[in-house]
Write a structure and sequence with these properties.
four-stranded mixed sheet; three-stranded antiparallel sheet; about 10% helix; mainly beta; Metal Binding Protein, Guanine Nucleotide Exchange Factor, Chain A; binds zinc ion
Amino acid sequence: MIEGSCLCGAVRFRAMRMSGIVVCHCSMCRKAAGGAAGAFFVARRDEVTWEGAEHLASYKSSPTLERSFCSRCGTAMTGANLIEPDETIILAANALDGDIAARIVAHEHVGSKTSWADNDDAPHFRGPYPGWESLRP
Ligand SMILES: [Zn+2]
Ligand SMILES: [Zn+2]
């Protein structure tokens, strides 16, 4: 069983199984997911249960594709699903809770990858970045 939730906790999903994760670097996924890339996986629609689905809002990012997110906190909850539903649903990996044993199976639209995410040799910190107070443009 895998579980996901939005930042405010209003929307939750549970799925029996998940596919590997596909990371999408396109500009739409970056904006929708709120990061350097979107990360998504596939579940079977009939194996997914929602809690608080009434808090989901959706946006058609292209004529046949729809994304949904929590209307309270904005967390991306699904990827660009076909409006005509099939037996699968694309869920947003950013919403996953806990340490899920999943693997990234592909990176797509890498031609759209931002240069700032590509040129990254910055130091890593286990806690918060100690330079926030002095960070200036
Ligand atoms: Zn929320
Ligand atoms: Zn994308």
